[in-house]
Amino acid sequence: MDTLSRLEQTIAQRRAADPAESYVASLHAKGLPQIARKLGEEGVEAAVAVLSGSAEELTGEAADILFHLLVALDARGIGFDRVLEELDRRDGISGIAEKASRSA
Questions:
Q1: Distance of alpha carbon 75 from alpha carbon 63, whole angstroms
Q2: Is residue 58 within 8 Å of residue 80, measured between CB atoms?
Q3: For residues 68 and 38, is the Cβ–Cβ distance under 8 A?
Q4: Quick one: which of 83, 102, 81 has its CA closest to 94?
Q5: Cβ(79)–Cβ(72) under 8 Å?
Q6: pTM
Q7: In this structure, how many other beta carbons lie within 10 angstroms of the beta carbon of residue 35?
Q8: Which pLDDT does position 67 carry in this prediction?
Q9: What molecular functions are annotated in GO for this chain (predicted)?
Q10: Domain limits of the chain?
Q11: 42, 61, 69, 81: least surrounded by Cβ within 10 Å?
């Protein structure tokens, strides 16, 4: 089992934990708006790290984005396997062509 799969399982297990003892449970207790807000904050912090952070800072922010994305997917009942399937579907397709196909 890879790291993201293990993390996805851990997040699912902690979803119903005591919010005072689990960060994942505390996010879930606050609902989708807070989960979305945290994901957005991490995205901004990663973008800043791309421009002016060290490799270590960007690496940490990338990990934060992946973690919060998995929390968001879990909150919506979407397994990471669906994201991987979508990436597989896009494999070999130009990004420009793929984006155009979504707007058609």
A1: 18
A2: no
A3: yes
A4: 102
A5: no
A6: 0.87
A7: 21
A8: 98
A9: ATP binding; phosphoribosyl-ATP diphosphatase activity
A10: 3-78
A11: 81
Residue where the block lists tokens 């270590």: 56
102 pLDDT exceeds 80? no
The DSSP-derived string for 12-40 is HHHTTS-TTT-HHHHHHHH-HHHHHHHHH
Tokens (6 digits) for 95: 């990004």
Rg (CA), the chain: 16
* Dihedral angle over CA of 48, 37, 22, 74, nearest 10: -100
Please give the DSSP secondary-structure letter assigned to residue 91.
T
CB atoms within 10 A of CB 47: 14
CA distance 38 to 65: 9
How many whole angstroms from its chain centre is CA 40?
Answer: 10
